[in-house]
Write a structure and sequence with these properties.
It is a single chain. The chain is mainly alpha-helical and 202 residues long. It has one domain. Helices cover 79% and strands 0% of the residues. It is built from nine helices and no strands. Helix 4 packs across helix 8. The protein is elongated, with a radius of gyration of 20 Å. The chain starts with a helix and ends in a 9-residue tail after the last helix. The relative contact order is 0.13.
Length: 202
């Protein structure tokens, strides 16, 4: 399966106008397709490092627009559609994240190895705020793919193994630190505004 995947990606990279194939792959992956666009993005970036940042931009645009389609699919298909295509465990995990972080949970999925399509379709099915969903998608997908593009632009083929092996883990660590930082700021802010208890007299 892995060999077929890389063969398929190599075939796309060798076709005319590979940027359009990258756009379509990123678009499809955000709503229904299983192959992440990072694989084609890295392949194209290694082949032509001078265009890697442009490919990162193309990938970001396709992914965000595909996420909008996923949101629409979930909005009109509702929860029955979720249970038809995804496991109950995965749906409940996504719902817990949305209950805790609202539409900003989309940003968590956009940066991490979590399948993005689950969040885009669930976002529509759960009827979360579309404006925040769109903003979180734009920020997270652009940060992910543009970071890959910039690294490929400066380091080319020498960074390929690092991206395949470690980039997802670094993205996950970044999200953990980001969420932890927001929680700490919020927690300290609540403590600072908590009225102090009056001291008892001698």
């Amino acid at each position: 399966m892995k060999e077929r995947l890389f063969l398929f990606i190599d075939q796309l990279a060798a076709m005319p106008h590979p940027g359009w194939w990258l756009f379509l792959l990123a678009f499809a992956e955000s709503s229904f397709f299983p192959i992440p666009p990072d694989v084609l993005l890295i392949t194209l970036g290694v082949a032509t490092p001078e265009r890697a940042i442009w490919y990162g931009l193309v990938c970001s645009a396709g992914s965000v627009l595909g996420g909008i389609l996923g949101y629409g699919i979930g909005l009109y298909g509702g929860r029955p559609l979720l249970y038809k295509f995804f496991s109950t465990r995965k749906i409940h995990a996504v719902e817990r994240l949305y209950n805790r972080f609202n539409a900003w949970a989309t940003g968590i999925a956009g940066l991490t190895p979590i399948p993005y399509k689950v969040f885009t379709i669930a976002g529509g099915a759960f009827k979360i705020d579309f404006k925040i969903f769109l903003l979180a998608s734009l920020a997270s997908r652009s940060l992910r793919f543009m970071a890959e593009g910039v690294l490929l632009y400066f380091f080319g083929d020498s960074i390929r193994g690092f991206l395949f092996q470690w980039f997802n883990w670094l993205s996950l660590a970044f999200v953990v630190l980001l969420v932890g930082g927001f929680w700490l700021v919020h927690h300290l802010g609540r403590r600072a505004h908590r009225p102090s208890e009056p001291r008892s007299g001698p």
